[in-house]
Amino acid sequence: MHMLKYIHVALVGNPNSGKSTIFNNLTGARQHVGNYPGVTVERYEGITTYKGQRIQITDLPGTYSITPYSEEERVVRDFLLTEKPDVVINILDASNLHRNLYLTFLLKEMGVPLVLVFNMMDIAHWRGYSFDLEKFSEFLGAPIIETVGSKKEGMDAILDAVMAVAARSAEHSEIKEQGSEKEKAGNQGIIMYAENVEGVISSLSSALFSEVSSSDGLKEKGNTPAEFLKDEILRRWTAIRLLEGDPAVQERWNSPEVERLVKEAKNTLAEVASGAPEVAIISARYDVIGKLCAESARTEREVSRTASDKLDEVLTHRWWGIPIFLVMMYLLFQLTFTLGALPMEWIETGFGWLGENLNALWGESGESSLLRSLVVDGIIGGVGGVVIFLPNILLLFLGISVLEDSGYMARVAFLMDRFMHKVGLHGQSFIPMLIGFGCTVPAIMATRTLPEKRERLATMFILPLMSCGARLPIYALMIPAFFPTKWNAPMMWLLYVIGIILACIIAKIMSVTVLRGEAVPFIMELPPYHLPTFRTVGIHSLERGWLYLKKAGTVILGISILLWVCTTFPRLSSEEVARYDARRAEAEKAAEIEAQKSITAEKSVSESGENLIPADKINESGMEVLEISGNGSESETEHVAESVTKSKTETVVEDVAKSESVNAEETGPEENTEASVLEGILAEIDNEEAEAALSYSFMGRLGNVMEPALLPMGGDWKIGTALLGAIAAKEVFVAQMGIVYKLGEVDEESESLREILKKTYTPLQGFCIMLFCLISAPCMASFAVMGREAGWKWAVTQWCTLTFLAWCVAVCVYQLGMYFHWGV
Fold it and tell me: Is the pTM here over 0.85, yes or no?
């Protein structure tokens, strides 16, 4: 057998045909994932070596057709035309051949070298099917392999067939010159349809070659149409695609001559077939498929109701289907964000440990080091904020993969499609929206399951309006601060509902404006239920996790450094820093004096409790004022006092340390009042300095610049600063408010911050701030993933649109509230 340098193989098949399982069986861990240029469809490629032959395998997206209505169909068709793989492995579900063979016929029309794989033979045999593989192979002009992908049966047979077909293609590049007419038709893959349809196809094919052969205006990858149409199979394929109205082929072969020829051919076909040309050709294909299956496939027993049929009676029930689905999604949500909490805590702890150890390298002298701040606060903090979501990503896509591979996700589309289409979305859009209540990042990535680009973009655009888990700390902080306990749950519910309603309105507007277009034919399959393989779902989950780290992590790292710069520079002047240092020194000195005073008073108490030194005999420095009797001089008196004070002072430091240690161990830190007071004073000074530094930084200055725009919605520069900090992550809003109000480290349970907010703002202002946080621009991670998935133009548009919408809604609510005196 002729040995090639390598064989390039493409896997093509319907969704749920077991294609991905076979791909994983053939390539194992030697595979990588990327995106096709210009689209979000994933590209899976793997390498295997069989009998010394290196084979590169590309797993193309699952599709029912290669008419480029969806991105998946366009990717498959363009890949086969431009990449020209040596062999195409067509995976078919043997238990549903009548439907799967339609894609096979389309591949045969293109003339690609095929290996047909009848997969899921165990299910087909259980249903009583048997096949005359020799007849199938002779008619289709391709070898047929029987497999059970879930059990890895038939994998070597596939590779043997691939090597044989690749070798034959390499040795006989011009197959059409060999054999009789019958062999020619079989080898080329030309399947003859009904005579009336075939006559029109043949006439148009010949007319195309003769009419456009002299045209220099039409090009096909650098070749003139005449050269392209010399190939009989490509000429016939072009004619069929033009008759079916393939938009991509029409654009490629756009000229008045071609348009005239196609119009005449369509009119002729409509007359002879008594119907639309597209319908006539589709019907012609299914007529041949029906005859082929009738002759070459037999059913030994009739299976009236399968287990899948019985499950569908419950899972797709008119009334119970959606509640069951909601329960399933709730369980998936719980799996993702509850079980993921522990590993998220581990990751957070790990990054915290790393930050602490890096801090220790600089020591106390490095507190003001810019390099330390960049590494610990900027880089470690930024990367940690991304990696912490990794358990969510893995668990989420593990659950989605299980539901997809089991066949349940197809039922979800069936249940939700009608309602979602009313608001301009796809039935499967509901799943990312539901996931968005946990986190927008995996929700955006989950839109990859949507088949059409317009609906995918619309879904991604509205996902930030779902109240993600990062907004919960904001709600948990502000709702109890401004509303009584009985209103807490209704206010939380109201915010969620507002987000959903706005999402539906925006999606509908987008569907009739920027994303308007003809509805894409929605082909939906309800495959039989089956147990997903651990290998397949595991590989998919790990791949998604790696893509998340690779795509989001690098971008977020850069933005984290940018935010660090904005909150760090410009720094306070040395005079300002010295002023705060002086205040700290004064506080420490005052505390030391008070401590000495207290200790001296305590030392004056005897064991019997008698006061040896009255309190009025202790001066402000904690020294005993001695009265010397007799005729001693004033200098002698001072000398004696100084000596006594010195002897007592030598024990002060020791006694303070012992006293504070005993107090801390026996009575607790709350009773160590002197230390607590000093600690509080120093913390207040630190936070005042932090507030001053923040106000002086670029971020603080932006907050002050924003204030005129925030005032109409009830905000101020402090709210603006917190909103800017929340760009990195929504939770940062709470921490930023703590810094602004000089409370140091606070969280959503901080009663002191709630009290200050309650005194500073009205309930109306609090509600408008929450509205703004709900609607406004998504967090940094979501922005980065949106840019990667939809393009940076869409990411910027989403950011600006939602921010402006949030401002408009908040302003309207605040102004109406002020006018009607609501919550003021």
Answer: no
